[in-house]
Amino acid sequence: MSSDGSEYVKDIYNRGVQEIREELRNYWMNHSFLLGYQWTYWNYDQRSLDNVASEGDRIQATMNRMRANMRSIMANLTQRELSYENPPSAYDDATIRSARIGSALLQDIRKAHQWEVLREKHITALLKGGTAAISVDWDAENQTTVETVLPIGDFCLEPGSISDNRARYWVRKQALPTEEVYSMYAEYFPDGPPPVSSISSLDPYMHKIVGDNMGLGGTQVKRTFVYTYYERPNPLCPDGKILVEIDGRIVQNVKKWPFPFKDRLNISLGVETVVENRWYGATFLDDVRPVQVALNAAWSNLLEHLRDAGTARLTVPSSGVDYINQITDLPGEILEYPDGANKPEFLTPAQLTGWLRDMPDMLGEIIDDIMGVHDVTRGMAPANIESGLGLSILAEKDSSPVGRLIKETARVWGEVGQMVLQLHEQEVKKSRTTSILDGATQVRYDWKGSDIGGQTGCIIPLDAIIPRSRAAMQANADKMMQMGLITTVEQYTSVAELPGSEDILAAAAPDIAKARRENAGFVLGEVLLPQIFDDHALHIQTHNDFRKTQRYELLPVETQEIVDLHCQAHETLAAEQAGTAQEQFSVAPVLAASPQADGAMVDPAVLEAGMPEPEPMPEPAPSLEEELMDPIQDVNAMMAQLDQG
Length: 645
Hints:
Elements: H1 8-19, H2 21-35, E1 40-43, E2 48-51, H3 65-77, H4 93-112, H5 115-129, E3 131-139, E4 144-151, E5 155-157, E6 169-177, H6 178-184, H7 208-214, E7 223-231, E8 241-246, E9 249-254, E10 267-271, H8 285-309, E11 313-315, E12 345-347, H9 354-371, H10 388-398, H11 403-427, E13 432-438, E14 441-447, H12 462-465, H13 470-482, H14 489-496, H15 501-508, H16 510-523, H17 536-547, H18 550-553, H19 557-587, H20 589-593, H21 604-610, H22 624-644
Antiparallel strand pairs: 1-2, 3-4, 3-10, 5-6, 6-7, 7-8, 8-9, 11-12, 13-14
Helix pairs in contact: 3-9, 8-9, 10-13, 13-14, 14-15, 15-16, 16-17, 17-19
């Protein structure tokens, strides 16, 4: 294991490659087909891809149905972003805070390290080779983790292993630019840069068609192979080790396993189709490839018929050839031809049989069935299906062939998240600050590795990444609104998951949007004052919703008091507005209904209903003349009654 050119790690890699020889061949064949190089075959003599020789003017059509369907599959599988949950192992405040720090850290790293891009690369490699992995390493210079997607052609596990959890070691093979390798390990190559690795020695399964596209076979960039060997602690190697070999020289020798986990390797393996008792799997693209070959052959045959036998031709007697040049495009034109000769006639092209005309469509449907891609997958609604629930059911059934891949993706990235948290817990000694956007609330955490507190059991809920029909979600939201279960714009945008929901909420309910921004400010320790033009009822309701969350409970007592005083200030301003309106109404009801600078709109009917019943007005005292007239009126009344009696 010294720098004597023994090629120790390379020999281990070559032994591991022998076990996955067939899978490597299928990987490069599928890779070639997806790129559009489909008139190829496997040359067993040369052990590489080779082109099907073209025979003269024979047509070699390529109708790449595989790549079109792959785009639909990738769009469905990556429709929803990764979402982590980190359930605490206990429910005391310290444990809950540690779990939330871990969850926030993963969300921050997911964006900073572009995990969505890596996720798409991982799924693509998984579909092409049936097996793909994600490795996790620690970057000591930048004090963070490095996640790398590994197709099956870039690594191998211990031969005979059942899974990545049972294997003792794995080997990674990289083709890095020669100058980059020399800059990292110049002390091991005093005579100059390491030798360039030729494309022929790269791998017996690498062809120039694939190599050029992957950037490995071009003449512009010279590349050198770097082999890295990872072995976790085991009875044969109690401390574990990591070796890096270039051109037979061990340029790095870590004699102790540096990762905090010792019961597994620093790699998470995913398979598209499980095959029992082996660590590598299979892929449905292996079944699609022969059908794609037949589809290309069928289209080539039809195109040759179109070229050679699909053109209508005019037959004329040889004696009438001289009159052909006299033909014009004048409607109703009279054409002359020699007496006794047959008149010119069109020769009808040969009619192809129905089964030959239908063959491309039949083969295309077979490919769609194998890959699980149909009209619903492409966004086309079948006939007579218009309801959101019906489309949702069809979309769910349509994605069932690749539904397992959703679960596999969640498992793999869940394991990656666990390893990332464990490494940060072990390596980060100084305090850091992580800020994330949780919905509309900005959350900030000050933490160091020990604050994670062993809360690394993160998972990815399947419901968070399962593809959903937006039309079905909106139809369900409409139904809930009709039933009275949804009463606000905020609830509707949340249930329907409308794109740009924050902008919709800001336009339709600006007070709720403003209250959410204030909640975010409270979490960051800011002191915010309510304004007279706020809708105090909506603000108090939104702040109360925030005060019922676990995030509020974990805030410092001083911050909680800021929120409480803010709500009390809203209550005071609301009472002042009500008092002002009451006073204006008592003076003149019109004043209460007039526009107010604070935005308060008071219904006069409400104020009138809240006013106390007015006391009856006392009757005015009679005047002197009325008092003098009262006895005379009484006497006249008595005399009138005596006359009637």
